[in-house]
Amino acid sequence: MSQSVEIAVPNSLILLMDPDTGEMPTSLGRRSVAASSTCVAIGTLNEFDGKTTVHLDEPSELPRRENLMLRWEGTVGTSGRMGLVNVYNEILLEMPANEAATVAVWTNDADEPDEIWVLVS
User: Could you name the domain of life of the organism this protein comes from (predicted)?
Assistant: First the structure.
């Protein structure tokens, strides 16, 4: 169930969370990826420098590319759905998820990636 979107992301930040119950981390702390128990905040390419391609998929779908690096892996609490949203809580991509979803975030750059893979199981 591969989904993707190519977008110039407002504020260069996307959030992986249940759109109804997720709570953002208080800070990125100079990192490109940070998490709370219900949300993963992911920095993107600066919105004025171009578009970022974001993929939401299952772990078996990660392509084999040398430039992708694992930036974060952990568990995110949901009420049964997971969405990639912008800072205005507008849903970019969405999928059903376990209440304790296992998440991995892969990107092609440590600071301003223009390709992001979010894998949820």
Answer: Bacteria
3-state secondary structure of 118: strand
> What's the pLDDT tens digit per position in 15-59?
999 998 998 888 777 888 999 999 999 999 999 999 999 999 988
pTM of the entire predicted model: 0.92
Beta strands 52-57 and 115-120: pairing type? parallel
Per-residue confidence band for 1, with pLDDT thresholds at 50, 70 and 90: low
Three-state helix/strand/coil letters over the chain: CCEEEEECCHHHEEEEECCCCCCCCCCCCCCCEEECCCEEEEECCCCCCCCEEEEEECHHHCCCCCCCEEEEEEEEECCCEEEEECCCCCEEEEEECCCEEEEEEEECCCCCCCEEEEEEC
Class of domain 3-120: mainly beta
> Does the structure show a pLDDT above 90 at 112?
yes
DSSP state of 45: S
For 55, the enclosing helix (H) or strand (E) is: strand 52-57
